[in-house]
Amino acid sequence: MKRSEINPYLREAKERFNRNAFYLPPFAEWSPEQYRELAPDFPEIRTCQLGWDLTDFGRGKYHEDGLLLFTLRNGILHHPVYSKPYAEKIMLSLVNQKTPLHYHLQKTEDIINRGGGCLVFEFFNSIPGMAELDCSTPVEVPGDGTVHRLPAGGHLRIGPGESLTLKPGVFHSFWAEKEAVIIGEVSAINDDHSDNIFFGEQRRFPLIEEDEPPLHLLVGDYNHFS
Ligand SMILES: [Fe+2]
Hints:
Elements: H1 3-19, H2 32-38, H3 43-47, E1 51-55, E2 67-73, E3 86-93, E4 99-104, E5 109-126, E6 133-134, E7 139-143, E8 146-150, E9 155-158, E10 163-166, E11 170-188, E12 196-198
Antiparallel strand pairs: 1-2, 2-3, 3-11, 4-11, 4-12, 5-6, 5-9, 5-10, 5-11, 7-8
The structure holds fe (ii) ion.
The site of fe (ii) ion (FE2) has 5 residues, from strand 4.
């Protein structure tokens, strides 16, 4: 993706979060120069991979396959300082913009519709230990006090305020319907480098063409800009 595409998506997300009274921590507004200057005194940001994140999953069509995220908090197992066992994100899914089928090896996550349109999910169980869909067994998805039971490949819609619990091993894909959706995530520790199993070839982080300066750094930029 070009940096000149990413910057406007960050601006749009900030506007939407503000309009929905979801306020981000001060480091969400840091420029790359401020990051360079301040990051040594805020080591948790880089260590725990907090901050902006945006991906086209390596497919080059952000509006079809993509997701914007901001990680607000995250822990690292057995870390002497940052061992909190939980994570929180806020995300933005545009209309019909898909997060492709994936499951998590360790992480249980609650996905919450924080406002906008309907968020649609597709579910499959996985074949244990493989990146393969189990197309024959029904899927059980807890949410808001009940358990939804769906056939393999079944769809579930959640409106503003509703949530689902996605357990490890359950393939899930999601997208916003008719209107963009602000999505919350409350989960166990998040490790995007080793915990995501995608169905088919995907890149979790985009390749970025630097055609203009970044508005804000993405978590994937921290290594190059410090
Ligand atoms: Fe997920």
